[in-house]
């Protein structure tokens, strides 16, 4: 065992430290208030972490600094015996000691995890040496603790004490004191004899998370992130460290006839101590379920030293329905479809059907109307559901507003309707602000606020909001891919790379990882990488990803890749509601890239005839979620007059949407490029660059539509600005 106090006088201590770090099999870093501000400590901890040798501990309750928060820090401010036992086990694991070695190093007044007396290790010299090393570590830690002159527990303020045992049911123990008020509620196990009752456990879990997220003093890890720990055997401290939670709740639900039994336990994420436990055995009624949720919320708040506000008390006492069957249908609706953007349409429609059942049973069930409205909006906006779905969402929202206009579920649905349904980003921003003032940790609202900020051109604010959402939903790739999309516009290219890697680590086969990796690579001007990202192996690839695969092949001008992308685009993904000819238009553009002009012209003529025959040729119009903008077809056909007419119409009704207008400007620039108007193409390239920055040149450079203007003075000026930007930012091009 080597300690930095062992450095001899006159030694060159940096070399001594590097040598010892290199030869060590485990490196203990003790975080304190002073240590987290020390560059030397952080450098040494970084070397240990890179080598997989780091064991973090906290002497005074200080959390590890940025860059080390993902490593669980054993907390010595609570029960030091348990913390020391955890430390010994962690070091034993790093140095390869056996269980008997680590048990022998545990002080005699601690019991082994099994409660059994360990066998004596002293007959084997190797084991004896390992045990001595661990005992020495324990001695150093205790010496460090004493040198910190920490007051005895009896001298500390009452709220600074961490209780080691499970208290009686009515009085929760308090968690280890930190600034962290984050709660992780793991999925409830279904203990019912009927496996079909799993929906009830899942719905109960989601509804409890929703209620907790409405409490202003609490922050709650999202359902998406905690669901990854269903049926896990990971230790609670590991889960808490991964999620960044102060306390973790486990639970199980059992239904039998008209009875329900719910047992829950609250655990300190740092020490693995049980803070509170309760078993509820009640008649199965909505009123009883709401009472249980209220009691659980109060127990968590007390364990985290939080004081409930008047609004919090009102939230806890609210009873959204008194109809048992309606509440059960509502729970089914919650379980069928979460608020994730990647939920398939069939699941959203199943959710809507359950909410309809709840509403039929209780026509005053405002939360059911609000949840139904959100799912209808998601189908409209995310899945191209058309005007029918938008109108249906508005009707559901109006009913929720008529019943409970100030309810958080109603306001959430209103905010997203203003955002997705009306494109009124200022109104949506205000609604989300109102929500966050009452529930600062409401993850879905944090994301909504970030999206409206992005639409209004506040990229730094949007990025900060997405980071806040990712903190409470660290295993939900939605926030990470949105960070990938946003960070470059805030000048944070490195953060975009980190976020993309994080999303790929969490869910490598999610199509969003491939799609946003493609978008990011295009912004880098790296077409080869864009092709690789789009070609990731994914599950259930959407139409947009097949389009991205074809576009990246087109930008590479590679006939074999283009033909493969066309052949591998499945029939079921070739048509979308708002533009049935989606595949054909993409194919026509590809044919032009290949030089097959006659075939491209014939296909475009067929598409135009089909579009002209419709009463509404472009039902999605210029909406940000449109698969095809109105100028794309006339641009490819070279119909400059029609492109100019459509652009004039767009300019008259252009929305106040900085983020979306950038995308529309790009499409208009490409249309003018294909139609042969270099000046108008440059107008929209330059306007798009105002939103993007001087790096925009590398985005437009690969497009065939602009090949004829590469010698144009305005294009050359754009290239020069990019070169200056690149030199300043040390980019590799």
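^ structure tokens above, recovered residues below v
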């Amino acid at each position: 065992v080597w300690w930095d106090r062992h450095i001899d006088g006159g030694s060159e201590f940096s070399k001594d430290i590097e040598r010892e770090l290199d030869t060590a099999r485990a490196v203990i870093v003790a975080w304190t208030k002073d240590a987290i501000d020390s560059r030397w400590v952080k450098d040494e901890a970084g070397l240990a972490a890179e080598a997989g040798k780091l064991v973090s501990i906290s002497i005074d309750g200080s959390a590890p600094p940025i860059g080390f928060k993902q490593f669980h820090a054993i907390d010595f401010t609570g029960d030091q015996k348990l913390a020391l036992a955890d430390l010994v086990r962690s070091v034993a694991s790093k140095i390869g000691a056996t269980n008997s070695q680590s048990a022998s190093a545990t002080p005699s007044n601690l019991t082994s995890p099994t409660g059994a007396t360990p066998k004596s290790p002293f007959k084997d010299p190797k084991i004896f040496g390992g045990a001595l090393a661990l005992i020495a570590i324990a001695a150093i830690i205790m010496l460090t603790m004493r040198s910190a002159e920490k007051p005895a527990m009896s001298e500390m303020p009452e709220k600074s004490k961490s209780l080691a045992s499970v208290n009686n049911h009515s009085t929760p123990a308090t968690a280890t004191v930190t600034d962290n008020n984050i709660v992780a509620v793991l999925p409830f196990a279904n203990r019912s004899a009927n496996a079909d009752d799993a929906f009830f456990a899942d719905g109960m879990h989601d509804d409890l998370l929703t209620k907790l997220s409405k409490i202003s003093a609490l922050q709650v890890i999202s359902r998406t992130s905690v669901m990854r720990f269903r049926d896990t055997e990971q230790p609670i401290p590991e889960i808490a460290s991964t999620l960044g939670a102060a306390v973790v709740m486990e639970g199980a639900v059992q239904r039998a006839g008209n009875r329900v039994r719910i047992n829950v336990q609250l655990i300190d994420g740092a020490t693995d101590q049980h803070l509170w436990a309760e078993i509820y055995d009640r008649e199965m009624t909505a009123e009883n379920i709401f009472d249980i949720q209220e009691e659980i919320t109060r127990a968590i708040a007390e364990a985290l030293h939080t004081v409930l506000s008047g609004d919090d008390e009102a939230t806890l006492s609210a009873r959204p329905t008194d109809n048992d069957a309606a509440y059960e249908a509502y729970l089914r609706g919650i379980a069928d479809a979460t608020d994730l953007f990647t939920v398939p349409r069939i699941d959203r429609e199943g959710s809507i059907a359950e909410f309809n059942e709840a509403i039929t049973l209780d026509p005053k069930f405002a939360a059911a109307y609000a949840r139904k409205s959100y799912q209808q909006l998601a189908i409209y906006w995310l899945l191209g559901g058309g005007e029918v779905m938008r109108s249906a969402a508005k009707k559901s929202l109006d009913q929720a507003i008529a019943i409970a206009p100030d309810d958080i579920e109603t306001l959430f649905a209103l905010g997203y309707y203003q955002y997705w349904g009306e494109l009124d980003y200022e109104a949506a921003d205000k609604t989300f602000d109102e929500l966050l003032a009452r529930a600062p940790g409401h993850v879905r609202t944090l994301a909504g606020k970030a999206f409206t900020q992005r639409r209004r051109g506040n990229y730094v604010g949007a990025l900060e909001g997405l980071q806040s959402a990712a903190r409470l939903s660290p295993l939900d790739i939605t926030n990470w891919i949105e960070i990938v999309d946003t960070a470059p516009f805030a000048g944070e290219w490195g953060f975009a790379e980190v976020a993309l890697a994080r999303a790929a680590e969490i869910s490598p086969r999610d199509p969003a990882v491939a799609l946003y990796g493609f978008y990011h690579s295009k912004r880098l001007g790296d077409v080869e990488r864009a092709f690789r990202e789009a070609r990731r192996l994914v599950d259930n690839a959407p139409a947009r990803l097949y389009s991205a695969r074809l576009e990246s092949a087109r930008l590479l001008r590679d006939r074999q890749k283009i033909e493969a992308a066309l052949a591998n685009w499945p029939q079921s993904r070739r048509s979308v509601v708002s533009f049935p000819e989606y595949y054909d238009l993409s194919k026509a553009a590809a044919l032009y890239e290949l030089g097959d002009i006659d075939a491209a012209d014939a296909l475009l003529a067929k598409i135009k005839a089909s579009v002209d025959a419709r009463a509404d040729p472009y039902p999605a119009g210029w909406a940000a979620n449109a698969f095809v903008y109105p100028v794309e077809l006339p641009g490819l056909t070279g119909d400059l007059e029609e492109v100019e007419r459509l652009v004039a119409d767009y300019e008259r009704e252009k929305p106040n949407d900085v983020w979306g207008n950038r995308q529309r400007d790009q499409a208009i620039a490409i249309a003018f490029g294909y139609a042969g108007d270099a000046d108008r193409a440059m107008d929209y390239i330059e306007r798009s660059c105002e939103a993007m920055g001087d790096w925009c040149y590398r985005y437009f450079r690969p497009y065939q539509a602009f090949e004829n203007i590469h010698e144009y003075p305005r294009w050359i000026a754009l290239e020069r600005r990019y070169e200056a930007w690149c030199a300043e930012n040390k980019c590799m091009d």
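The longest helix spans residues 125-147.
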